């Protein structure tokens, strides 16, 4: 691709307009209530200019910055999965006639999403869900159509969030996977601009239309420094070395019991996580009983019903549920999909009402790794 | 969706061509495709998702193919909402079906070996296609033993077939019940007590087990004590399942999705997980 260009803050509007013109539905960060969430945006006015988020274990709050940064925060409570893998979807309808019935599949429509402000960890999360839904032997048709024309305007993080650990997971802060455009926001005393990298031909043709100037070496250097600085200020660390083996060898470890005493089984972590994909189905019928629908809804391994089989629930304790969640994320995911199920976005830490931090849980297990201790 | 690719979550319609009451709580359905699509090929041990209109969808193993028509047979124990709705279906009624899914019993690996089949309760149903696959080429295998345990005599499935298996094919079929009244003249006790009573060479045997986890656990133990190696023992796992295609996440068992990596597993592949409680 060509050398990065520079786009001024105001010109970002042209980019959004261009995407809209081409039929894209533009989604980006915007303030709703007390949080920065992802929703429809139509101009930079909708972006959370001058706002940041303060995140810690069990803690989230937005507050004013002392500049006018458009992307001066980290990740939203929601993730992009709500658009690609919606929380609820109708799978099909069935109509009864006599002793027979017919099944009417859903008509699917391509929403042509353009996501503005996707963080590097989030691009990785999307790639991970791709493996679950469209790269295996079976294709999830809703995910596939939502994903089909997805245009991503990524943002390199200009600061480390309070619960992030993307450096450990090698998923950021610099965008290092597939994207259409990647922006680095630069705020200097009297200048506010974005260095733009182009990652696809379709992005290239849009950029050419915007008449941007090529970035100067000095500007590229500043952008690099911003990202390096983010990486260096990452407060959290997760040691991934041999993590699969470590967790599998410690399926019986006192720490599971200990964390279960704190965990509320509320399922917040699984809802907030951008890679968690589990779902359940619900069958509904109308009052006549002749019209039935099958719905798919997000589900969580923290619910009791998740493992119900005739005769009882397999994971009937918070201990077994938390163990399942964490070993799935960090260990069995590797067997299943050839990558970790965690991208280090920190959402599960921020949105856990009791502030359980999986990086701490892993460290605690490592500290008294059963196999290692047995060997001493 | 990509052109005409079939959405894996949308069932095909099947018609019930025959219903059979097997026991006080179990029944079989013979099913014929209502569409143009042929009845799919399936491996012994594979399962389908059966949908009862408006009630729900559950995983049920294929228990055989009807002799003349080739229709699919499913043998189902009525235990709850969906299985009871399936129980209510009559000849001519319609149900939804997706599949077949999952792994199969290792018939090839049984060649030139003795075969021990251990079934508990409804667990004989998923094993029946394996039994018929063995019978079809009987001379390829050594001794074949079927050990079948149920709670009470009234729970016994497919008893009419036992005589043919024994007589025509020289198969050792042994049955035991957990408890019975005085009318029962057969064995009483857990299924593992039958193992020493059949002949097989543990160093040249493949075992296939299907039943409650606790029964499989003790069967594995007994087979190992008899001298069998873990890698020749195959078991099936059962977990809650909402999709059968690896999307819903419910059937995860350690690194495996039971719907696609199972339900039939070589025991040595899942041993550490099988031995962990509440996994
Ligand atoms: C791979 C596989 C093959 C199976 N083969 C057979 C078979 O050949 N014959 C047979 O009788 N049974 C079989 N079962 C068990 C059968 O699926 C359950 O008995 C059935 O799901 C119970 O549903 P229900 O709605 O009647 O019961 P309820 O108790 O009302 O269950 C409610 C829901 O929980 C889930 N559920 C409950 N029990 C099970 C279970 N054991 N396994 C998976 N999900 C469950 C289902 O989604 C069910 O709709 C098999 C299960 C699996 C996983
Ligand atoms: S497990 Fe936690 S940190 Fe990892 S991707 Fe999910 S929400 Fe983010
Ligand atoms: S770890 Fe925290 S967020 Fe997850 S279920 Fe437990 S209490 Fe809820």
Structural account:
Chain A is built from 14 helices and 16 strands. With 376 residues, chain A is an alpha+beta fold. Chain A folds into 2 domains: 212 residues, no CATH class; 132 residues, no CATH class. In chain A, helix 9 packs across helix 11. A 7-stranded mixed beta sheet of chain B has the order 10-9-8-7-11-12-15, with helices on both faces. In chain B, 19% of the residues lie in helices and 31% in strands. In chain B, strand 8, helix 3 and strand 9 form a beta-alpha-beta unit. Chain B has 2 domains: 90 residues, Beta Barrel (Elongation Factor Tu (Ef-tu), domain 3), CATH 2.40.30; 167 residues, Rossmann fold. The longest helix of chain B has 13 residues. The mean pLDDT of chain B is 94. Chain B is an alpha/beta fold. The chains are: A alpha+beta (376), B alpha/beta (279). At the A-B interface, strand 6, strand 7, helix 4, strand 13 and strand 14 of A face loops of B. The structure holds flavin-adenine dinucleotide and iron/sulfur cluster (2 copies). The site of one iron/sulfur cluster has 12 residues of chain A, from helix 12.
List the helices and strands and how they pair.
The complex is a heterodimer of chains A (376) and B (279).
Chain A lengths: L4 E4 L3 H10 L3 E8 L2 E6 L10 E6 L2 E6 L16 H4 L3 E10 L2 E6 L7 E7 H14 L7 H8 L2 E5 L10 H4 L11 E7 L4 E7 L2 H10 L2 E2 L2 H16 L10 H7 L4 H9 L5 H5 L6 E7 L5 E8 L9 E2 L2 E2 L4 H20 L9 H4 L7 H10 L2 H6 L1
Parallel strand pairs in A: 2-8, 8-9, 9-10
Antiparallel strand pairs in A: 1-11, 1-12, 2-3, 4-5, 6-7, 6-14, 10-11, 13-14, 15-16
Helix pairs in contact in A: 8-11, 9-11
Chain B lengths: L11 E10 L4 E8 L13 E6 L3 E10 L6 E6 L3 H7 L6 E8 L12 E7 L3 H13 L7 E7 L8 H9 L4 E6 L9 E2 L16 E6 L2 H13 L7 E4 L15 E2 L2 E2 H4 L2 E3 H8 L5
Parallel strand pairs in B: 7-8, 7-11, 8-9, 9-10, 11-12
Antiparallel strand pairs in B: 1-2, 1-6, 2-5, 3-4, 3-6, 4-5, 12-15, 13-14
Bound molecules: flavin-adenine dinucleotide and iron/sulfur cluster (2 copies).
